Amino acid sequence: PLVLGIETSCDETGVGIVRGREVLANTIASSMAEQARYGGVVPEIAARAHLEALRPTLDAALAEAGVGLGDLDAIAVTAGPGLAGALMVGVGAAKGLAAATGLPLHGVNHLVGHVTADLLHARGAEPQPEELPTVALLVSGGHTSLLLVRDLLTDVEPLGETLDDAAGEAFDKTARLLGLPYPGGPSIDAAAADGDPAAIRFPRGLSSGKDRQRHRFDFSFSGLKTAVARHVEAAGDDLRVADVAAGFREAVVDVLVTKALDACAETGVPRLLLGGGVVANRRLRDVAVQRCAAAGVALRIPPFSLCTDNGAMIAGLGARLVAAGVAPSPLGFGVDSTLPVPVVQV
Ligand code: ATP
Ligand code: MG
Ligand code: FE
Fold it and tell me: Any idea which positions bind Fe cation (predicted)?
């Protein structure tokens, strides 16, 4: 099926068009530059930016795919989780389009969308075999989730998530502590290149003792952030930003990869899929590649344009729902900023 996907859960306005698993268009506008002035995503600004960007992004996607609205079989839109005001812009637009065209509309789960990214392939390229079950680690500015995916539509099980900050959020907040620019991920990555990751050992949250037993697959980054803040204060003028950046990055990466591989071992699933904007982190990729190879776990990392928030993954999930004969969402559906993961469609 030919499906249009709309994604507005955070600061990316994404419109994608797929034919089955083939990506015909994946157009993205981002309010990141505007958000940079505030050192984080401001929900109000994100919502307003979606409102302005949606129409041109939609037109660009249709042009790129070379299709018209009349060619589509269905529309899919992110219904949650995400920022309520931002989600509402996408859902409102999708309902308008559905009403105007008579097309069926599927309100879908953003996190399952991230998992779907791995099933998509570029225009004209050979599709890779679908490999399920898989453990999925989704790490971005808004989420840090470990999932067990046995079936995309019927069996996505949450194993754990962050109890406080998301991994990307931890990068952003820590960068601010170090006087590095937003977004913090890339700037910490750059600063860490000249640092010694072993110079300062920062805490690995929920990784030892009782915490680890109780929260085997959960994450916590607020203690790490506090440890960096204390270190910065104590170091004063002697602060070595490169070493702190390297030590911080090492702690985040270590905890993410360790817990993901623990999940593979415990579930007996020898596959790990990565998704989300933090996947841009060089060290995360390197450590994941090394440790997965050592553990005999097959690692999958979709192209970066499908790792960050995008419309193609939402369209891809919509196409799966259509192909499976799932009825569209009732038109009265609303957004759900905390939509839980087992709910694939609202
Ligand atoms: P959502 O949480 O809904 O997916 P988001 O906009 O917060 O939305 P993304 O756009 O996927 O998430 O990712 C942005 C986040 O990724 C930011 O927190 C940013 O700091 C982080 N990030 C980007 N590049 C890197 C990097 N090289 N290393 C670590 N983190 C990175
Ligand atoms: Mg973003
Ligand atoms: Fe996301």
Answer: 110, 114, 309
3-state secondary structure of 40: coil
CB count in 10 Å sphere of residue 264: 22
Element containing residue 162 per DSSP (H, E)? none
Query: Would you say 275 is a known binding-site residue?
Result: no
Does 286 show up as a binding residue in the annotation? Answer: no
Residue 321 is encoded by which pair of tokens?
Answer: 């729902």
User: What whole-number distance in Å separates Cα of residue 343 and Cα of residue 59?
Assistant: 30
Mutate which of 162, 224, 309 for ligand 1 pocket (most atoms within 8 A of beta carbon):
309
pTM over 0.90: yes
Residue 138 marked ligand-binding? yes
Instruction: Give the span between the Cα atoms of 142 and 120, in whole angstroms.
Output: 23
Atom of ligand 1 nearest to the CA of 172: 20
From CA 312, how far away is CA 134, in angstroms rounded?
21
In this structure, what DSSP letter does residue 127 have? P
Q: Is the CB of 280 under 6 A from ligand 1?
A: yes
Q: Ligand 1 centre from 79 Cα, in Å?
A: 20
- Residue 165 CB contacts under 8 Å (≥ 6 apart), including other chains: 173, 220, 221, 222, 225
Question: Does 50 show up as a binding residue in the annotation?
Answer: no
Atom number of ligand 1 nearest to Cα 81: 3
Residue with CA nearest ligand 1 atom 20: 185
SS3 for 106? strand
In 3D, which of 340, 338, 300 has the Cα closest to residue 117? 300
Which residues of the chain have a pLDDT value below 50? none
Q: Which helix (H) or strand (E) holds 22?
A: strand 22-30
Task: Report the chain's mean pLDDT, rounded to a whole number.
Answer: 97
**CB of 309 closer than 6 A to ligand 1?**
yes
Closest Cα to atom 27 of ligand 1: 281
Give tens-digit pLDDT for 264-319.
999 999 999 999 999 999 999 999 999 999 999 999 999 999 999 999 999 999 99
Q: What tokens appear for 155 in the block?
A: 């069996």
